[in-house]
Design goal:
single chain, 11-stranded mixed beta sheet, 10-stranded parallel beta sheet, 340 residues, Udp-n-acetylmuramoylalanyl-d-glutamate--2,6- Diaminopimelate Ligase, Chain: A, domain 1, flat, 5 helices, 3 domains, alpha/beta, 18% helix, UDP N-Acetylglucosamine Acyltransferase, domain 1
Length: 340
């Protein structure tokens, strides 16, 4: 594909030869002759100069880079589109395998693919052009929308509603029982978890994520939210639209998370917390109560800038402790001399 054709596809401004043949897209260090890459930060200009890539996608033309460049407003987005163009295979429906179990009471859309060993229960609904890979279980009266991809060994329990264009990676469990018990006569009595889960359109759920069903009502994941691997979402949690949750986050029950919220890895959220729109929380932080819009770190969380100052002080604690002991000894010695 000629570089000029790529520029036209991306709506990019071309600087350099339009006739270079581009055969693929790759990262700066992985690119080889014939590849196109992208520059995400000025810190990587020298790496781009040394890269074997034949062309660079940039936000602004950089004179130091003596290679053809494509100027776009968002280089990473343009690069993502090229990865789709070069490597993502076009959708071709494979139909329903005779080694899959699909209930005759299930409703199956057009151009659906159901691979061997999948199990689709009574009353389930699978939308048009959706792909169900091997080992997937879809429970009674659950629905999966149009153009979804459900990877191998995903469990979707009963009464789960999944929107369109949702991607669920291997090992995820959607609709497992919430962790609810009441103490009675010295024993933990299980509270029936009779609610459901609602997953909005364009959500992506990573490998081995668990999203518990509500005790009553619904656990809700809003449109466009992206959840990384190994995340636990407890019963009755409500997450807004276009939020991003990194790996190993744990969100306790009945928490409300707003739109465009970002959690770093291993963030822990206490039950009944409320996180406003636009909140960002750094990795390994602990969240509780009501958190208003801002950037936070630490456990419990405090404003990120305050946390950075606190970390500097924390690192100096051994030195400060030593100094305090020295001062205490000086005071004691001074008092002894006065007593004489």
């Amino acid at each position: 594909m000629k570089l000029l054709e790529i520029a036209e596809m991306l709506g990019a401004e071309l600087s350099g030869s339009p006739d270079i043949e581009i055969k693929g897209a790759a990262g700066i260090s992985d690119a080889k002759d014939g590849d196109i890459t992208f520059l995400s930060t000025a810190k990587l200009v020298s790496a781009c100069i040394e890269s074997k890539a034949s062309a660079i996608i940039v936000k602004d033309i950089i004179s130091e880079i003596k290679k053809p460049q494509l100027k776009v407003s968002n280089p990473q987005y343009a690069f993502a589109r090229l990865l789709e163009h070069f490597y993502v295979k076009p959708f071709i429906a494979s139909g329903i395998s005779d080694r899959a179990y699909v209930s005759d009471k299930a409703r199956i859309g057009k151009e659906v693919s159901v691979y061997p060993m999948a199990f689709v229960s009574d009353g389930a609904l699978i939308g048009d052009r959706t792909v169900i890979y091997p080992g997937v279980f879809i429970g009674e009266n659950s629905s999966v929308g149009d153009e979804c991809i459900i990877y191998p060994n995903v469990t979707i329990r009963e009464n789960v509603k999944i929107g369109g264009r949702v991607i669920i990676h291997s090992g995820a469990v959607i609709g497992s029982d919430g962790f609810g018990y009441v103490m009675e006569k010295g024993a933990h009595y299980k509270i029936p978890q009779v609610g459901g889960v609602i997953i909005g359109d364009d959500v992506e759920i990573g490998a081995n994520v668990t999203i518990d069903r509500a005790t009553t009502g619904h656990t809700i994941i809003g449109r466009g939210t992206k959840i990384d691997n190994l995340v636990q979402i407890a019963h009755n949690v409500k997450i807004g639209e276009n939020s991003v949750i990194a790996a190993q986050v744990g969100v306790a029950g009945s928490t409300e998370i707003g739109n465009y919220v970002v959690f770093g890895g291993q963030v822990g959220v206490a039950d009944h917390a409320k996180i406003d729109d636009g909140v960002m929380v750094g990795a390994q932080s602990g969240v509780m109560g009501h958190v208003t819009k801002g950037i936070y770190s630490g456990s419990p969380v405090i404003p990120h800038r305050d946390w950075l100052k606190s970390i500097v002080i924390f690192a100096k604690l051994p030195e400060l402790n030593k100094r305090i002991k020295e001062l205490e000894d000086m005071i004691k010695n001074s008092e002894r001399r006065k007593q004489r």
